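Weekly sync, protein design subgroup
Attendees: M.S., D.O., the rotation student, P.L. (late)

Item 1: inverse folding check
M.S. brought a backbone from last month's batch and wanted to see whether the design step gives back something sensible before we order anything. D.O. pointed out we never logged the input encoding, so this time it goes straight into the notes. C-alpha cells as presented (153 positions):
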C-alpha cells in the first residue's frame, strides 16, 4: 500500500482524518517491515509480529490511547472521517457506530443513543432520508469536533 501513496492519481483531501490515517501508515511501516520482507512468511508468524503494532499504533494515533476504551471512539472517528471523505453514506456511518456500540461506552453514550435513533428514523421514514443524511453529518461533525478539542484526548 505504501507504494501507492505517492501515485499522482491518488486523491488527497488533506483532512485531519486523512492525515491521521497517513500517520498510522508511517508508524506501522517500521514494525511491519520484517513481516513484509520475509520471503518465508506464514500467517502465525505474521500475526505474532504484526498484532502488537496493529493493536497499539492506530488507536494511539487516532484516539490518543491504546486502552480497551479507545476502540469505540476510534470507530466513531472512522465513521465521521469516512463520511466526510464520502467513502461511506450517512446510513453506513450510523450503522457502523450502532454495530460497535454493544460495548456501551460511558463517554460516548450520548452519541451512541443519537445514532441508534437516527438509524431507526432512517429506516422508518424513507421520505425523510435527505434531511436525515444532513442531520447525521452535522451530529458526527459536531461530536468529532468536540472530541478532538477535549483536553483529555
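Designed sequence read out in the meeting:
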Amino acid at each position: 500500500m505504501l507504494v501507492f501513496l505517492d501515485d499522482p492519481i491518488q486523491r488527497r483531501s488533506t483532512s485531519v482524518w486523512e492525515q491521521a490515517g497517513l500517520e498510522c501508515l508511517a508508524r506501522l511501516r517500521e514494525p511491519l517491515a520484517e513481516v513484509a520482507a520475509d520471503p518465508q512468511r506464514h500467517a502465525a508468524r505474521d500475526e505474532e509480529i504484526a498484532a502488537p503494532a496493529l493493536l497499539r499504533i492506530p488507536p494511539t494515533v487516532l484516539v490518543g490511547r491504546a486502552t480497551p476504551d479507545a476502540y469505540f471512539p476510534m470507530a466513531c472517528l472512522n465513521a465521521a472521517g469516512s463520511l466526510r471523505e464520502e467513502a461511506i453514506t450517512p446510513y453506513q456511518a450510523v450503522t457502523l457506530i450502532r454495530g460497535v456500540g454493544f460495548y456501551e461506552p460511558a463517554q460516548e453514550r450520548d452519541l451512541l443513543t443519537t445514532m441508534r435513533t437516527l438509524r431507526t428514523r432512517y429506516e422508518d421514514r424513507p421520505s425523510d432520508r435527505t434531511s436525515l443524511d444532513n442531520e447525521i453529518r452535522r451530529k458526527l461533525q459536531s461530536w468529532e469536533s468536540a472530541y478532538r478539542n477535549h483536553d483529555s484526548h
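Discussion: The chain is about 70% helix and 0% strand. The mean pLDDT is 84.
Action: P.L. to compare against the previous round before Friday.
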